[in-house]
Amino acid sequence: MTIGDRSRLASCAVQGNPLPACCIPVMVFAAEWRKRLIYGAMSLFVAWHTLAMVVAPSPDSELKRLLLRVLHPYVTLLKLQNTWDFYAPNVGYGQQFRYIVEDAKGGERTFVPTRAWGWSDPHYWWYTAWYNVIIDAPEDHAALAVALLCKEHAKLDPATITLIRILQKDFRVQDQLNRKNPMDTEFVTVSVLKRGACPGK
Question: What is the DSSP string of 50-82?
């Protein structure tokens, strides 16, 4: 668009004046370029998302590590790093992270943190991913988790925090028809990941 075109378009925008024929080509030109820019941006996004979906679960390689330097924040945010066979040949058992806060007087309160959000809430998936990291590598992350939870529940005067893993057992169709829950005591195995004292206790 030339300076002359801009001047003509500006003169057409005077309130109360009908659009003269000179302005129509300029407006059509601007609308056409707007469509092209939107189409181009959408195409770039589709290409970016497709690349992330293909690279994240692919076998390890030098090229994958190189691309993940750029893609890592995006695939982590949308949880795209699952392998291609995460439902094959068998669906894995579910697990749940819980913790027990014991106060200075010996009282205990059990927390299931993921119950604070529904499945459609992004917080549910972000925090579940963090809890799964604690479950998978407690030797690396459990101490930090205890320290953070002591701080979070400071009003309860916590003395110790016990981190717990709940692992599902077989849950069959008949169990569902009997209105049982996959997290009922008879269908889970409970294991302690770490029991740590809060700072100053």
Answer: HHHHHHTTSPP-HHHHHHHHHHHHHHHHTT---
